[in-house]
Amino acid sequence: MKKTIILFTLMCLSVSLSAQEALKSTEEEYYDFLSLQGITERPTLGYRTLSDSEWKFRDVTQTKENEDGTFSKVQVPGKESDFNIWKNNNLGTKFTLWENETPAENRFMNGIDQSIKAKIYGPEWFNSYNTASPYGQNDGALWQGKGYNTSFTAGARLEGYGFELTFKPQVSFSQNKEFDYFTSTSMQGSNYTDKANLYGYLWGVVDAPQRFGDSSFWTFDWGDTEVRYTWHTFTVGFGTQSPWIGSAWLNSVLHSNNAATYPKVDIGIRKTEIYLPFLNWDLGSIEGRIWIGRTTESEYFDNDSSNDHNMIHGLSMSYAPSFLPGLTIGANRTCLVKWKWSNLKHIIPSEDNYVGPDASEGEDQKASFTADWMFPAVGFEVYGELGFDDGLHFNSIPQHARTYTAGAKKAISLSKKYNLDSEIIFEWNCTEMSQDFQLQWPYNFGFHHHITQGYTNQGQWIGAGSGYGGRGFYIGYRVYHPKGSILGFFHHWQPDNNFIYSKAVNASADDGELNKKYIRSWKTFNTFGLTANYFFAHSFLAECSIYTTEIMNSLYAEDGTQDMRNWHFELSAKYNF
Fold first, then answer.
1. How far is CA 305 from the centre of its chain?
2. Which of 44, 366, 486, 534 is deepest in the core (most CB within 10 A)?
3. Secondary structure (3-state) at 195
4. Pairing state of beta strands 170-174 and 217-221?
């Protein structure tokens, strides 16, 4: 009897060729690289979470040598093709635990996978060390302060009959050692009150602490935990998975996985093909999602417990026309309001944000338009995102709240003999205020006078991990080989030029008031980095990184002399089942 049970289990336990991947994970970035060459198909258009990021291989055409020395072209599954450099490595597997041999056939059950599948995530252990100052982004609830930082995540996913249950929390630790940062005794004091004066952002009012307290701390975050139901492509879910909005690779304007997660409810349609059978028209693909969430301020903002939570509304819509292959366009919108049920009305986008005597009625709207064009035949992609604050004003008022991201990727084959491929990644980001704010007030895309915590959750930016108010660019070159990859990059970033621009608001240069006072006050990060990952076994992946960052004028000094150098080390290990 025991042998019979074991045999039955092995017969039922089959392997699926597709699986959901965590955002910005090694696996997801590799699948995305393959999509540049047409080997995989991107599962989303403009809204993606772990649950939506289910990658599938396409069949590819390869040239094979015949026994008689001639060559012929054959169709090969992408998973097994020579173009899939990591085909001998385990990137994670979805297991079929049970398959319905006699699936029901009716209007409700058709289109639903009538089986039970499971996937195990991790375990994954991440470690980093900063020698001089905090450094790190797109890492969820983890705060990579000065000193030692670590996070651990593991979990599982169960699917069956349209239901999806994902449990993948994150536990992290930050040593949070002391370092020199901008304080009230520096060039300009913070506008905070209470304990936030000790750790607050260098200017304005926003819950983005420069240091998370004065001691080490642990953090528990629910991470990519979620329960969901999907019928065909209609989907509704509740959980804490952070969505990545748009096509940006490093700094998404509106939403990323940079901050801690927050509970949310979402509803919409996943990537769906539109086909008119009577006219035989293929119109392309659409995707849409709307969500409501509850954000929380950090422990380092203020002592007022009545304003600890905000309500966030989100909307993302994308379209990929069939008549322009590879092109995807999208429109996105978020809105932050105070946490009270009457503010559910703001789920509907409005033209202007409300400004009135009751601050609890105020809201902070942001919007963006995205475009992405991929050319798999030549392994090239170009993308961009244009962001707006406080609605869209297509009138005589200048578009003073614009931000933008632009980037490109290029796949380059190095050696078929040694199975080497590579890619170039470039991204340019700008979130500076435009100069018409010199006629108004100091401004930052991440601040808002009604939403005093700003565009943050638990002290970290919800969108661009590099922050708002500055500009910079990233360029990297990655080489893939059969057992891993090596990435070298340079990242130049000025985190908040708006802080310096704010000095000129209501000031004059003609009468000598400014007198080139801040001409050397710009803060700049110049980072050179090297990252290597390697499959030491079929399922065991290790990664190590070393970055060196020259932080020029770290405290925005008027003479520009306060420079420092930070060394950032990373070591992580993951086992894929």
1. 29
2. 366
3. coil
4. antiparallel
Please name the helix (run of DSSP H) or strand (run of DSSP E) that holds residue 269, with its range, or none.
strand 264-276
357 prior amide bond cis, ω within 30: no
What is d(CA 209, CA 422) in angstroms, rounded to the nearest whole number?
38
- For the segment 249-278, what is each residue's pLDDT rounded down to a tens digit? 999 999 999 999 999 999 999 999 998 888
**Alpha carbon distance 139, 172 (integer Å):** 10
3-state DSSP assignment of residue 428:
strand
CA neighbor of 253 nearest in space, from 447, 425, 445, 443:
445
The secondary structure element, H or E, covering residue 228 is strand 226-231
Identify the bridge partners of residue 533 per DSSP, sorted by sequence position.
485, 543
User: Distance between CA atoms of 229 and 165, rounded to whole angstroms?
Assistant: 9
Residue 249 vs residues 24, 245, 289, 473: alpha-carbon distances, Å: 9, 10, 20, 12
Order of strands, sheet of 19-20, starting from the edge strand that comes earlier in the sequence: 19-20, 54-57, 40-41
pLDDT at 348 over 60: yes
Q: Where do runs of H (alpha helix) occur along 155-305?
A: 196-199
Helix (H, G, I), strand (E, B) or coil at 498: helix
The pLDDT of 305-310, averaged and rounded, is: 90
Task: Pull the structure tokens for residue 516.
Answer: 């080139």
Closest C-alpha among 167, 290, 268 to residue 224:
167
Q: DSSP per residue over 24-68, as a string?
A: T-HHHHHHHHHHHTTSEE-S-SSEE-TTT-EEEEPEEEEEEE-TT
| Residue labelled with tokens 């002592």 | 303
pLDDT digits (tens, 9 = 90+) for 130-166: 999 999 999 999 999 999 999 999 999 999 999 999 9
What residues pair up with 475 in beta bridges, in sequence order? 426, 490
The answer to whether the Cα torsion of 159, 160, 164, 166 is positive or negative is negative
- Residue at 176: amino acid letter: N
**Strand, helix or coil at 359?**
helix
Q: What is the phi/psi pair of residue 175, to 5°?
A: -65, -35
Assign 3-state DSSP to the chain and report helix, strand, coil percentages, each to 5: 10, 45, 45
Distance between CA atoms of 8 and 180, rounded to whole angstroms?
63
Q: Are 209 and 182 in contact (CB under 8 A)?
A: no
Whole-model pTM: value is 0.91
**Residues 6 or more apart whose Cβ sits within 8 Å of residue 75:** 59, 60, 61
Q: d(Cα 550, Cα 563) in Å, to the nearest integer?
A: 7
The DSSP element (H or E) to which 7 belongs, if any, is: helix 2-12
